[in-house]
Write a sequence for this structure.
């Protein structure tokens, strides 16, 4: 992780984790999630595209997410 992003992640209070088929296979997103967990950040997981629970990284499977996949209302 680059220096500026690392600094920002250390100083933020809340981490928004956008869950999609693309984000769950991204090493970059996985490292950000692990970093947020390591530093005990408040994590707000948002499901933005239908994604199988088994695809979510093991480190984030325990998190309850807010489902935005049907945002037609």
């Amino acid at each position: 992780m680059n220096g500026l992003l690392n600094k920002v992640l250390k100083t933020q209070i809340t981490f928004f984790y956008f869950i999609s088929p693309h984000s769950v296979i991204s090493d970059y997103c996985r490292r950000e999630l692990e970093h947020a967990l390591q530093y005990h950040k408040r994590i707000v997981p948002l499901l933005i595209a239908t994604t199988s629970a088994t695809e979510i990284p093991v480190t984030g499977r325990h998190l309850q997410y807010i489902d935005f996949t049907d945002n037609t209302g």
User: Anything to note?
Assistant: The beta strands are 14-19, 42-47, 66-67.
